[in-house]
Specification:
By secondary structure, this protein is an alpha/beta fold. Helix content is 45%, strand content 11%. It has an eight-stranded parallel sheet. Strand 7 (254-257), helix 11 and strand 8 (278-279) form a beta-alpha-beta unit. Helix 4 runs parallel beside helix 5, helix 5 runs parallel beside helix 6 (161-170) and helix 13 crosses helix 14 (329-337). The radius of gyration is 19 Å and the shape is globular. The N and C termini lie close together (10 Å). The model has no long low-confidence stretch (mean pLDDT 97). Bound molecules: zinc ion. Residues 8, 10, 72, 177, 221, 283, 286 line the site of zinc ion.
């Protein structure tokens, strides 16, 4: 029996009062006025938004649980200053904690970070600790908190090291995940996300990060961006850069999800990338919400594509469950504590 764990879900359907407060927060920052109190959201309100969306789709599609984080496109840590980013991260993470408390068998919480572009990682370190203390199992790390101009140091830079030390100490992985795009040339989910995923992978090739942090783990979402399709290019570049083979250089530490939204893409992913490095994910309710006219099924019904893969039952079990439990040891511990 395999537990179907979706490693990539966002609370894109939070109650409207949550988003309204964000607008008030931004207006208050602009006006130099105090921020109004965060609204009181009832459990029923939260239940309604989840039952009608994420939970309904999860059940319809035959998955069991979702590794769940705040809406990525709304993280926007570049807005305001660090205190604005910190407040916004806290209310979002608190909301995710409530979702997980209401449905502990369905939602495993992952936090966003208050990565204001001018700030160091100290605020993010404190927020990660606060969230892990609340039962969170991982975080979303934004490699470009400026929102589409790629001015942050590469992920292999020492700028990030204090945060990685915290991740390693807490034994939590990070999904590398940008937020909304402030760059009119970069469509958020179609260009910026996929570009950032690809850029992150190349940064990891160029550096030697996992020599310093052998147990650090990253999930690169959206199928690893363009990486699997261009696998020969990246292997060749590693060779030209005098780096070891990618299997040892990065692939003990880097994982891709299955959010590519069509069967040939998943076939390629599973063919090119070792199945130990693939985690089932859908990113729903999220980036692409429509129905594929060529199949009659939702683009983001990604379980269907994994089910159809011509791989061994063991490999499928790893993609649906085993790899997620390995990458998220705190999830594994929570499941074991529940007898799963
Ligand atoms: Zn996402």
């Amino acid at each position: 029996m395999t537990l179907i764990i979706d490693c990539h879900g966002h609370y894109t359907t939070a109650p409207p009062a949550h988003d309204a407060w964000r607008q008030e927060q931004k207006a208050a920052f602009k006006a130099g006025a105090p921020v109004p109190a965060y609204p009181a959201l009832s459990d029923d309100e939260i239940r309604d938004t989840l039952e009608a969306n994420q939970i309904r789709l999860l059940k319809e599609r035959g998955a069991d649980m979702t590794i769940f984080s705040p809406r990525a496109s709304a993280m926007a840590p570049h807005i305001g200053d660090e205190s604005v980013a910190l407040q916004w991260a806290r209310v979002n993470n608190d909301l995710i904690a409530r979702c997980a408390a209401l449905y502990p068998d369905i939602f495993a919480p992952v936090c966003m970070l208050p990565q204001s572009p001018a700030a160091d990682m100290q605020g993010s370190i404190a927020e990660l600790q606060r969230c892990v203390d609340m039962g969170f199992i991982g975080c979303n790390l934004n490699p470009d908190p400026g929102g589409g101009h790629f001015k942050s140091p590469p992920l292999t830079d020492r700028f990030w090291y204090p945060f990685y030390e915290k991740m390693v100490a807490l034994d939590v992985p990070a999904m590398i995940h940008v937020s909304g795009s402030c760059n009119p040339g970069l469509h958020a989910t179609g260009a910026y996300y996929i570009a950032a995923d690809t850029i992150a992978f190349m940064q990891l090739i160029e550096g030697d990060l996992f020599k310093d942090f052998p147990t650090l783990r990253f999930i690169i979402p959206h199928g690893g961006g363009a990486v699997p399709y261009h696998w020969g290019r990246y292997r060749g570049l590693a060779d030209m850069l005098k780096k070891p083979d990618l299997a040892g250089h990065v692939m003990n530490n880097v994982f891709f999800d299955t959010c590519v939204y069509h069967q040939p893409g998943i076939n390629l992913l599973a063919d090119v990338i070792a199945n130990k490095n693939i985690l089932f994910g859908s990113e729903m309710v999220g980036a692409v919400r429509g129905i594929d006219p060529t199949t009659g099924h939702y683009f983001d019904d990604t379980k269907r594509y994994v089910d159809a893969l011509n791989i061994t039952p063991d490999a499928k079990h790893m993609i649906f469950e085993g790899n997620a439990r390995r990458v998220f040891p705190r999830l594994d511990a929570q499941l074991k504590a529940r007898g799963q």
